Structure formats: C-alpha cells, structure tokens
Amino acid sequence: MVNSLINQVKKSKILYSLYYYVGSVLVNILKIFVKPDDKIILFVSFGGRHFNDSPKVLYDAMKQDKRFSNYKMIWAFRKPESHNLPEYAKVKIDTFRYFKLALQARCWITNVAVERALNLPVRIHFISIRHMAYFLNIVEKMYLITVLTQRLAINMTVAVLNVN
Fold first, then answer.
1. Less Cβ crowding at N or C end of the chain, within 10 Å?
2. Nearest-angstrom CA–CA distance, 111 and 100
3. Is the pLDDT of residue 160 over 60?
4. Which 3 state secondary structure label does DSSP give 109?
C-alpha cells in the first residue's frame, strides 16, 4: 500500500505538488523546534533498504577514525528491526523521529536521494557517493574521509591528500 501511494505521488503532478508544499511547510515548522547537532551524521543506503554499499564503506572507515569517536552515526532504514545495530544507531524512514534526526544532522551520507524532494535546510551537507566505494583503495577512502572532515569543520592535524 505504501509503495502504491509513493508511486502515485511520483507520477501525479498534482499529488507531487501537494506533497512538496505541505511537506515543506511541515518541515519548516519542525525546523523551528529542532536544534541542529553538528555531531550527528545520517546514513542511508538504497533508500533505507540495505546496510551496505558506499555509505557502509564510509561508515566503517569513520567508526575506526578517532576524529569521529564522539559523533552519533545513525542509519535510516525502512525496516530497522531487520538490521543488527543498536537501537540508538538506527531509525525508521518516514517517521517523526526520522525527520527530526534528519533536521538535526549536520551531514547525510547516501548513495541515492534521501531528501524526499522537500525544501530542507542549506546547512545540511549532502554527500552522495554513488555505488563506487567498494572499489576504492585506502588512499581514496582516506581522501573521502578528509573531504568529509573538512566539510564538517573538524580540526585535522594530518591531511592525507591536498583537497584544494
């Protein structure tokens, strides 16, 4: 039923416009009450269907990197109960908690579009890495982590590659 509704919204200009404007108004109202947290990173792989691909590669690298030790790394899933992560590290997509966390997060790491076509805050960094991270060597992974840390304004003492 949910997939049917999603497809109808995607195919109908009227339903899509209604969704976009009503959803954007609701998100903008919610923004007033949600305090941003620079230490939250939201991960989504294939629209919340999986715990893999490029976001998982970066997640694993960040979990091992001391610069991210005090970050909250949260995964968004369609069925969070089917993924072996602590409850605090996952959220069900399209719930109130998901939208609240999405507005709190400083950064979203994904391999597909996750913004649900809504008018979201510009302070959020969208990092979309399309299905390639499995093939990256360690230098390329460290480069991506370096770029990410610079976007998140983390003080770095060692840079692997020059990002200019």
1. C
2. 21
3. no
4. strand
Domain 35-151 has CATH 3.40.50.11820: yes
pLDDT higher at 148 or 78: 78
Provide the token pair at 161.
């590659």
Q: What is the residue extent of each domain of the chain? A: 35-151
Answer with the residue of higher pLDDT: 96 or 153.
96
What's the whole-model pTM score? 0.75
Q: Which residue has the tokens 């919204």?
A: 9
pLDDT at 138 over 80: no
Give residue 79's region: left, alpha or beta (phi > 0; psi -120 to 50): beta
